[in-house]
Every structure is written in C-alpha cells, then in structure tokens.
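Quick bug: NitT/TauT family transport system ATP-binding protein output formatted oddly.
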Amino acid sequence: MADGSPLLRVEHLRKVYASGRGEVEAIGDLSFTMDPGELLCIVGPSGCGKTTLLKCLAGLLRPTSGLVEMEGSPVTGPSPAMAVVFQEYGRSLYPWLTVRGNVELPLRHKKLSRAERARAVADALDAVGLPQSARSHPWQLSGGMQQRVAIARAIAYQPDVLIMDEPFAAVDAQTRADLEDLVRELHLTRGISTVFVTHDIDESVYLGQRVLVLSNAPTRVQEDLVIDLPRERDQLTTRALPRFTELRTRVYEQIQRAKRGPIAAPRPAP
Ligand SMILES: Nc1ncnc2c1ncn2[C@@H]1O[C@H](COP(=O)(O)OP(=O)(O)OP(=O)(O)O)[C@@H](O)[C@H]1O
Ligand SMILES: [Mg+2]
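Here's what came back:
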C-alpha cells in the first residue's frame, strides 16, 4: 500500500488445538508484519506450527487468540485475496479436469468474460513454462510439472498474497532448483507478495528477502533476518557467495537454538 502500512499483520497469535489427547499448543505467541511486495520465507523445526500459521493467515483456521490482519482488516475466513499452494500437488489438482480446466476453475468466482478468463489462463501457463500442456490431464505430467500447474492456478487468480507451504518438498533436486527460480522470477516480474514456508535453510536464504526463523513450542519468532543478497540471483553464483554462507550459517545457528528451546533467565547467585 502506498501509505507504508503493512500488507499482513500478525499480533500475539496463539493457536491451541483441542484433540482427544488433550490440548496441543501449536503456536505460542507470534507477532510480525509483512510489507506489500515482500518475499518472506518462514523456517522452523518440524512441528513448530508453520502450517498452522499459514492456515491462520489464509483464514482456514481461527486463531485461539491474537490477530491476523490483511490490508488493515481482520482475516475471519478464507479470502479471495489469498491463494495457497500446498506440498501435495497430487491432491490439489482435479484429475478429471485438464490443466487448463484446473487453472481456470477458481477464476469462475471472478467476474471475468470468457475471453478474459482464457487470457488469464494462457498468461499463467506461459509464466510457469507450460503453454504446451493446457490440454493434458494432471496425471499425464511429472510431479514438478503438476506443481507448476498449481502455481499457475494461484497466479492466474492474481492474489494479493501468495502463500506456499513447503511446495517443493516432494520433487527432485533439479526440479526443485528450477521451481525456486520460477518463484524468484514471478516475484521479480509480477511483484507478488509471497509467504514461503520451507524447512530447507538454503532454500529460505536463496529465495527470501527476509527470513523468519520460528522456535519450537511455545512457538515464537526466534529471528527476523534481512537477506541482503543481490536482487538478481542464480543457483550457482548466489549460492557460492561468502554472504550466502554467512546467512545460511546464521539461520542454521538460530534453528539449533530454537530446537534447544528458550534460554532460561540467569539465576541470581545464592
Ligand atoms: N488438526 C490438528 N489437531 C491437533 N493437533 C494438531 C493439528 N494440526 C497440527 N497439530 C499439531 O500442532 C503442532 C504444529 O503442527 P504444524 O503442522 O503446524 O507444524 P509444521 O511446522 O507445519 O510441521 P512440519 O514442518 O512437519 O510440516 C504439531 O504438534 C501438530 O501435531
Ligand atoms: Mg507443515
């Protein structure tokens, strides 16, 4: 927003699940903001509440207490302003629809003419490098291609925020590198505000403008790190920079600290 106010504001977010085995505090006390146009990566130990956080951001889960605000208004339910890409692309695409049909489906909720819709689908498939696959079905594509379709579906919708939950965890290393570059490119060329959750430290540093490191339960922000690497990045040069190594070491150390839990206050000498 032009007035400098944040796009997303999370304040004292807490989420407790009530289950048969009692209560699970998935998020203790989280506060942070995100500016429009940012690419924010979130890392943290497994089970620390990353997916829970994203679901609260996307309005899919209600916080137990605290606030999630998008463009100044509280998020109270799923919002058309946000698109989510999950890890399990296999389950997120409809096998009976073509690639084009899958990308087009959410656009049916928008007031677009048929021609505008077709243009948005073609543009999104172009952007993810799949213009030839519009008539294929998802099961005819590789895992990496299916995840590209899921990304195309999200960007065709032109969300204010793109939320991604470990989207590349299930693809091979080469495909993963290509998809990382795709996210960077979409961010640079389209300026889409993106929240990207990963458990991969190198991925968070390579992708992010900023990395939030979350602690183990009770989950809080362990570190909020600005990634001062060049805007233009590539897999070989950027990862070979001394600064890249410094930043990944910093994130690694913070995650190790996060796993050890909060540091106890020093006891007064007896
Ligand atoms: N629906 C649920 N009911 C009860 N407990 C849940 C539920 N969903 C998640 N949890 C618990 O909340 C905590 C945080 O889970 P969450 O999935 O948010 O973690 P995560 O950081 O995304 O983990 P991972 O890195 O493994 O994806 C875990 O202890 C988990 O067992
Ligand atoms: Mg998760």
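Actually, after a second look the formatting is fine. The longest strand covers residues 22-34. Closing.
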